[in-house]
Write a structure and sequence with these properties.
The chain has one helix at 134-145, and strands at 2-10, 19-20, 25-26, 43-51, 56-57, 64-72, 90-96, 101-102, 122-129, 152-156, 179-184, 200-206, 211-217. The two termini are 25 Å apart. The strands form two sheets. Strands 1, 2, 4, 5, 6, 7, 9, 10, 11, 12 and 13 form an eleven-stranded antiparallel beta sheet that branches. A two-stranded antiparallel sheet has the order 3-8. It is mainly β. Helix content is 6%, strand content 34%. The radius of gyration is 16 Å and the shape is globular.
């Protein structure tokens, strides 16, 4: 089986649910993440509710222990290595699920709001497909529902459907392989899409160590 993330229409920008776009939530006092390569603020991409084991889920509930928030640099597209899990040009924040607040927006005349947000918030809902691999599950979902395939936003957990080769990050603390949390497509609206070079994003967590990582391939 494969658990797809499917587009569920416009979402509330500040809701504490799994969503693409909107505004980021974090522990009070958290600073907006910045790019290690250019120094500018990162763009907020998405957040995911995780259960106690680190598996991503699409709603809200008491079982959720963490929130995974994803950011990437879009200040100089193609210059900063936002596709790399180790470059510092993106960020994956693993946060406690309770007590989160909106992160204060960076200030300054040089801050471009369009480079901080996607411009729209997309609600997401899970769809459990019988197919074992991601691409087959996407094709089957589109055929069954009659909806466009770009309404599949990705998958929750499962084996990553790599476009190139296996780039599973190693946890810097325990040196073990991180666990797949979510795989992402760019989105249903090209105007507000995430920029993965028409490819896919991949987020991983190490719940025992409290770490997370993000990368993309095309």
């Amino acid at each position: 089986m494969t658990t797809l993330i499917t587009y569920a229409g416009p979402g509330a920008p500040g809701a504490a649910v799994t969503r693409i776009g909107g505004v980021p939530l974090a522990v009070p006092g958290t600073a907006w993440p910045t790019c290690a390569e250019c120094g500018g603020p990162l763009k907020f991409l998405a957040q995911f509710r995780l259960d106690g084991s680190g598996s991503a889920v699409a709603g809200t509930g008491r079982a959720h222990a963490h929130v995974l928030a994803l950011f990437a640099c879009q200040n100089r597209p193609g210059s900063c290595r936002d596709w790399s899990a180790s470059s510092g040009a993106n960020a994956a924040l693993l946060l406690p699920a309770r007590g989160l607040r909106r992160i204060a927006r960076p200030r300054g005349r040089s801050v471009d709001v369009e480079k901080l947000f996607l411009g729209a918030a997309h609600a997401a809902e899970p769809y459990v497909a019988a197919e074992a691999d991601y691409d087959s599950a996407c094709a089957a979902w589109a055929e069954r529902t009659g909806r466009p395939r770009n309404h599949v936003l990705g998958q929750l957990g499962g084996a990553p459907a790599w476009l190139q080769y296996d780039q599973t990050p190693v946890c810097p603390d325990c040196a073990g392989p991180m666990r797949p949390a979510v795989q992402l497509q760019e989105g249903p609206d090209p105007i507000t899409a995430m920029n993965f070079g028409t490819g896919r994003g991949y987020a991983f967590t190490c719940i025992p160590c409290g770490g997370a990582a993000f990368l993309w391939q095309c």
